[in-house]
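Our consortium's second objective concerns turning raw sequence data into structural hypotheses that experimental partners can test. To show how far this objective has progressed, the report includes one record in full. It was chosen at random from the queue rather than selected for favorable results. The single chain below, 298 residues long, was entered without modification.
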Amino acid sequence: MGYQLELRHFHYFLAVADELHYRKAAEKLCISQPGLSRQIKQMEEILETSLFVRNKKKVTLTPAGEFLKAEVEFIVNHLDVTKKQLKLISEGDFGEIRIGFLGSAMQTVVPDLLVKLRDSFPQIKTTLEELSNTAQVNAILKDTLDIGFVRLPRVPDGLGIETVMQDTFSLVLPKAHPIDANSFKKMNQFAKEEFILFSQDYSALYFDTVMSICEDAGFTPSVSHKSVHAQTIFKLVENNLGIAIVPTSLQYGFDMGVKFIELKKIKQRAELSVIWKKDNRNPTLKHCLNLVLRESLK
């Protein structure tokens, strides 16, 4: 037939795969709907496989189409990143490192890294995005992040993971709560309290660890609220809507009507880890990792 797969085919395919609607995809691409249909049909002929199932009511991806969508998203994103890195390098910079993080990493680890990058490699640009554990893993796998700071026990094959910080946990109580650091003896003093936790979807490891802290004390906590933001949790505690258990480092940077009791004697620790894709070819990644891991070994 003489046709060859070209970059435009990928863009057309992604538009239809995202919209699952030919007219909407054509409008997004500013081309005619018949023209878009021809391009997708040509792409299917070149690949010798069907990518979409079409009927009068809807458009869906075939299994081959689902697979291709993930691969094309990676390819297109990698091309965009490469273009951006080339521009930065041509302007005299080393490139850009894209950093994902949980909120607790912003207390010490991420700011320390940014300062060290600025001092050691001022020609490396940085971008930051606060994301959940799962979102960071997915972004690194898709090459939309270079490095992430997570609370996970393990990661998928192809990713590297190293612990960079171990933190204790602390109770968060309203300032007027009758128990303080002097009168605190054991966790079972709070067996009848309502608890406010970070959402399990945000960090399953953290959620399970907090549950285990209570279970080790002989009770299962009654959970009244969940959130993905420390400030929201502290605000709920401040308003006597429950108590919380958080990594100790999270207490800094907030001025709210709560008090903290560090749980020094329990076995559980809040571990923060750095993750990255082992075959990531971003030249700035090795410099960033070296700074993070060198600091964690101190």
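The partners drew two points from this record. The longest strand covers residues 159-167. The mean pLDDT is 89. Both points have been shared with the crystallography group to help prioritize constructs.
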